[in-house]
Structure formats: C-alpha cells, structure tokens
Hints:
Blueprint: H1 11-25, H2 35-41, H3 49-59, H4 61-79, H5 88-101, H6 109-129, H7 134-148, H8 154-174, H9 178-194, H10 198-207, H11 210-217, H12 221-236
Helix pairs in contact: 1-3, 3-4, 4-5, 4-6, 5-7, 6-7, 7-8, 7-9, 8-9, 9-10, 9-11, 10-12
Amino acid sequence: xxxxxxxxxxxxxxxxxxxxxxxxxxxxxxxxxxxxxxxxxxxxxxxxxxxxxxxxxxxxxxxxxxxxxxxxxxxxxxxxxxxxxxxxxxxxxxxxxxxxxxxxxxxxxxxxxxxxxxxxxxxxxxxxxxxxxxxxxxxxxxxxxxxxxxxxxxxxxxxxxxxxxxxxxxxxxxxxxxxxxxxxxxxxxxxxxxxxxxxxxxxxxxxxxxxxxxxxxxxxxxxxxxxxxxxxxxxxxx
Length: 238
C-alpha cells in the first residue's frame, strides 16, 4: 500500500501556513530566492520543507515570478519522493503557475509555452536521477493532461500524457503498488476518453478498483466513472 500524501492540506490550512510565512518574512519582497536561507528562517513553524515552500508559492505567487516557482518545484522533487505524493505535486504546480499559464495571463502564447517547456525539462532532469519512478511518471502525465486543455495542439499533449500513465502503471506493477496502478489507470482512462478512443477508455474505466480510487479521489469519483462508462458505451453503440 502506497503511503498517503503528506503535505496535501485543505485550502484553509494552507492559507494559515501562508499567513504565518508572510509574517515570518515581515512582508518583505523577494528579490533573489535563497531556498536554503528561507527554509532555515522558517524551520520553527512546525512545517515540513515542502509545506513551507507550498505556502510560500501560494501566498507570493506574483512576487516570486514563474521562474522562481520552477526553481522551488525542482527543489521539492529533489527533497521528497513523488511516489509518496501520487500526483499532488502536479496539482501544486498547476495552481502555482496558473497566473502565467491561463489565457488571461500577461504573457503571450509563446511565453506561456516557455513556462510549460521549462516544467517539462524539470521532470526530465528528475527522471534522469530517479529511473522507474511511477510517482514521477504519474505527475508528469497529469501535467501533460492539464497542458492539453491549454494547448492549441492538445493531441500531442494527450499522447504524451498517455505514454506517462502507461509507464507509471508498468512501474507500479513492478513495485506491487496497486494504489498507483489504480490511479495511473484512472488518469489513463481520462486521456483515452479525451482522445475519443472509446473502446480502450471503457476497458480502463471498467478495470478500476473503486474501493482504492475512492480513498484518493473521494466517493464522488464513482459517479464520474459511471457517467464516463455510459458515454463510452453510447459512442460504441453498446
């Protein structure tokens, strides 16, 4: 059984942590990010390093800028195993970079693509030092899936997401990690659904262990899956 996510907290808890960090920083703007110094100065807050960095990015998103957020993201990957987070790094990354990645961003489309490419390069560097890591493959796949809804060339991102989920599932089987197998299959089914591969999407959705999935996604996920199964069967004329 894979360990539960350690730093995924409710919005209210994260907001409280962010406010404590702002007080610790005395509202001073960040010019040059010194992660080691920052973590040293916040070590008495009772938070893990990743929690401190998460709260920092959420509370000072625009002050940090997207390049500093990418530096923080790479540091978090270096410090903690993505296997223990099961994709929650990607949720953090999407929310932290949201200001720069949406169509309302002050950046041009090509600049927004630069932000995305920078994060993909971070994932690749992490893979180079952590091969056969299903948590990292899952995180990368989720990020590609998110990118597909922002990218004009969504097919390419969906294909890359699908490849990452398949790797995550394969490596999870090797580790006998059936939580990860279930999560990887859930996201793989989502990518197949978006690609309109109804037969393979249906097969993936029907394979899912709902008991495991509900532990990670909540009970509402069952209704979502049943609706996707209904749509797949409708498209297939079943």
